[in-house]
Design goal:
- It comes from Fibroporia radiculosa.
- It is built from 4 helices and 7 strands; from the N terminus they run βααβββαβαββ.
- The protein has helices spanning 18-33, 44-51, 109-115, 133-141; strands at residues 6-11, 57-63, 72-80, 91-100, 122-127, 145-149, 155-160.
- A 7-stranded mixed sheet has the order 1-2-3-4-5-7-6, sandwiched between helices.
- β4 (91-100), α3 (109-115) and β5 form a beta-alpha-beta unit.
- The chain is globular and about 45 Å long.
Length: 162
């Protein structure tokens, strides 16, 4: 039986359904990543704070018949860079978190969500290649370039849109 078709949704701090959807999306993230409930990644307060930044958006996919039951999400917010990026930029739209339920992977969910950010001149993301090999491969195959190596094996990558 084929998976139900998915619709793309955007959530910002001013969205009418933010109070209902933000905890739902956080629960999805915590499930996908088996998050430590004491970490910033699992904190509703941290999510609210990041979503309040001017360019912040959560893109998510949910079945057409159940828009309140997301299966994938991408959380991006504006980020200032003290050291310029490789093309001189000091600002980017930063993909803070992105996840897809295991049963919905390999359906193009991340590509669909990333394409919703095509209007941003520069996107950045940090990942840990040793821990998230699939994500690392996905990014590098699509032209994301290493900007800098960070502590703990993390790497910041970027991509520019023309």
């Amino acid at each position: 039986m084929p998976s139900p078709s998915l619709e793309l949704h955007r959530l910002t701090a001013s969205s009418q359904n933010v109070a209902e959807m933000l905890p739902t999306l956080l629960a999805l993230s915590n499930s996908v990543f088996s998050a430590d409930l004491g970490s910033k990644y699992a904190s509703l307060g941290e999510w609210r704070k990041r979503l309040a930044s001017p360019a912040a958006v959560i893109i998510f996919l949910a079945p057409s018949a159940s828009p309140d039951r997301p299966v994938a999400f991408l959380f991006a917010h504006d980020r200032a860079h003290e050291s310029p990026l490789s093309h001189g930029e000091r600002q980017s739209l930063h993909v803070w978190l992105a996840g897809v339920l295991p049963e919905r992977r390999a359906e193009g969910c991340l590509s669909k969500m990333m394409s919703a950010l095509d209007t941003a001149p520069v996107l950045t993301v940090c990942t840990t290649p040793a821990e998230y090999q699939d994500m690392w491969g996905w990014l590098t195959r699509r032209g994301w370039a290493t900007e800098r190596e960070l502590d703990g094996g993390k790497v910041m990558l970027s991509i520019r849109h023309a």
